[in-house]
Write a structure and sequence with these properties.
With 165 residues, the chain is an all-alpha fold. It contains eleven helices and no strands. Helices cover 73% and strands 0% of the residues. The mean pLDDT is 93.
């Protein structure tokens, strides 16, 4: 079975909520297919949806090793670390990632979340405001993000300052 077909079949299972079937489909490929960046990325997405942080972390590290400029690998790796209670490591993973990460609004958003959890309010606010500049829709996500609950008042005030003529 060709890699493209296997990925599409796995994606279909995943979209139907059949995560174990989706993972089995990816596992059925050859070693080269299982190590392909597209396969790794889909596997990571599936594992994240199941909150299987350790497995997703392992796959994210593999993606970073295979494609060192992959922003997704670093973002997912950091997110897994954060979910595993290793927020300081998550922050360091993002900061130590490729320069191309700085083109991703989620890079700044996640750094803001990590800084907020680490008690660094000013740094968190600066990172989050940068993410909102790049992707205004992230403001809505921030309102419901438990990592930012204690910071939202500060963010609203800063956003209101930016909108004042």
């Amino acid at each position: 079975m060709a890699l493209r077909h296997r990925i599409e079949a796995s994606q279909g299972y995943f979209e139907l909520g059949m995560v174990e079937d989706a993972l089995r489909e990816l596992d059925a490929g050859s070693a080269a297919e299982r190590a392909h960046p597209e396969t790794l990325h889909l596997r990571i997405q599936i594992l994240l949806s199941c909150r299987r942080w350790d497995e997703a972390l392992d796959q994210s590290r593999q993606l970073c090793d295979l494609v060192p400029d992959s922003t997704a690998g670093y973002i997912h790796q950091a997110y897994c670390l954060h979910e595993l209670g290793r927020t300081r490591d998550a922050r360091e993973t993002l900061i130590g990632g490729p320069d191309s990460l700085r083109e991703e609004p989620v890079f700044f958003y996640n750094l803001g979340c990590y800084e907020a959890r680490l008690g660094q309010r000013d740094a968190a606010r600066a990172w989050l405001l940068r993410s909102f500049e790049m992707e205004p829709d992230l403001r809505h996500q921030a309102k419901g993000d438990p990592d930012l609950r204690d910071l939202w008042g500060d963010l609203e005030a800063a956003l209101n300052e930016d909108e004042t003529p």
